[in-house]
């Protein structure tokens, strides 16, 4: 039996051979090449796992949880405790998923809510302490550039104007 260019053993004559879905995944993808991106935004926390770093990576996993980190930043200057706890719980879950998927390369970025909130640095420290995931708080300019790179990667001949409307920023 051939699976993604990898040869799987044939069952012996008269023997029924069941191949689990996870065995097929392991045969096709090498988890050492997997790469994860975590986007800690003003509204949501998203995890995307790619098969490898390339011009057109294949998405293996994509999940977004609405946490509302930016909900109170404009009024109080701080991220709401309930939103912070929700984001931390989400990131703990993501860490377990990444461990299960054996993903070693992880890039986590935080945007406007974390950047603008007075408790942003404390939140980042808590993430790193409780999950072991290092977080880079990016500037608005870096956020806009990354959005543009995403568009160009997906639509190489893009010609026009694109807007990225986040929870706190329009790029």
From TrEMBL:
Residues 48-168 form the Ppx/GppA phosphatase N-terminal domain. It comes from the Bacteria. It holds the Pfam family Ppx-GppA. GO terms for molecular function: pyrophosphatase activity. This is Ppx/GppA phosphatase N-terminal domain-containing protein. The lineage of its organism: Bacteria, Pseudomonadati, Pseudomonadota, Alphaproteobacteria, Iodidimonadales.
């Amino acid at each position: 039996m051939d699976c993604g260019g990898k040869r799987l053993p044939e069952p012996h004559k008269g023997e029924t051979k069941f191949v689990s879905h996870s065995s097929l995944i392991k045969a096709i993808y090498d988890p050492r090449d997997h790469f994860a991106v975590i986007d800690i935004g003003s509204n949501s926390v998203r995890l995307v796992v790619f098969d490898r770093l390339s011009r057109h990576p294949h998405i293996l996993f994509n999940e977004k949880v609405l946490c509302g980190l930016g909900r109170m930043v404009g009024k109080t200057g701080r991220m709401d405790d309930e939103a912070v706890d929700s984001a931390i719980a989400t990131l703990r879950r993501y860490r377990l998923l990444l461990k299960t998927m054996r993903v070693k390369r992880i890039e986590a970025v935080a945007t406007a809510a974390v950047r603008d909130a007075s408790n942003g640095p404390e939140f980042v420290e808590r993430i790193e302490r409780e999950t072991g995931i290092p977080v880079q708080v990016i500037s608005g300019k870096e956020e806009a550039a990354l959005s543009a790179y995403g568009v160009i990667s997906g639509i190489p001949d893009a010609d026009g104007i694109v807007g990225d409307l986040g929870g706190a920023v329009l790029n």
